[in-house]
Write a structure and sequence with these properties.
alpha+beta, six-stranded antiparallel β-sheet, 30% helix, 6 strands
């Protein structure tokens, strides 16, 4: 199966749409019982391979998990690029048979932490700019 695509072209607009979250090495996924060693041998993994879940997002907040994928780096570009912007790396994105629930639950548990952190930083910036209000 060859589903080569640039992961930075996930369908989002203003952080709303679809996006991959989570990054666990395949060998660790075997260790926690998500995938068996035999299943993993079916895929040509590299040291840079990882397992991630595709989500429906709203303002970059993951809401609904869709599918779990094995992401295999095809060719790592040697050119300089700024993270989170355009990259020339290409990947094979292979859909796996089941959702990785441990990864999904971890993502759901981290959402309130990141929202709280965002609010604290936002209020600190507002306080610095406007003082006491």
């Amino acid at each position: 199966m060859n589903n080569t695509k640039d992961l930075n072209t996930q369908a989002t607009s203003g952080g709303t749409g679809g996006r991959l979250y989570g990054k666990i090495k395949p060998k660790k996924a075997v260790a926690v019982g998500y995938i068996t060693e035999e299943e993993l041998k079916q895929y040509p993994t590299t040291d840079e391979s990882y397992i991630a879940t595709s989500w429906i997002t709203l303002f970059d907040i993951p809401l609904i998990p869709l599918k779990t994928y094995l992401v295999i780096s095809k060719n790592k570009s040697k050119s300089f690029h700024i993270p989170f912007l355009m990259s020339r790396d290409s990947f094979d994105v292979i859909p796996l048979k089941k959702l990785f629930w441990r990864q999904i639950i971890t993502t759901y548990l981290l959402i309130p932490v990141f929202i709280a952190l965002f609010l604290v930083i936002g209020f600190a910036i507002v306080k610095m700019i406007y003082g006491d209000f």
